[in-house]
Structures are given as C-alpha cells and as structure tokens.
Amino acid sequence: MTSKIDFGEARQIPGFAFEVLVIGGVPEEGDVVLVKPDEPVKNGTPIA
Known about the structure:
Order of helices and strands: EEEEEE
Number of helices: 0
Mean pLDDT: 82
Radius of gyration: 13 Å
Helix content: under 10%
Shape: flat
C-alpha cells in the first residue's frame, strides 16, 4: 500500500479529517485499486 503521512496537521475532505492519505486508482465507477510497489521497499521510501 502507498500512502502519504506527516501533513503537519489533519487535512479535511468534506466530512472527513485525516492524517494519512491512502493512494489508489479508480479504473471504473465505484471501484478503487490501491497503489502498491512492484518490489519490496523500506517504509518511508519517497515516491515520485
């Protein structure tokens, strides 16, 4: 799973406060596929 942490303070999407943002793609309406690395990487590895 790929995520963004350490925003400094909680962010808001209407109705939700969050401190971790999980990243996913939306291939079609109502479907979400979580982004994940193809190979093992250490926690905290920067994403580009």
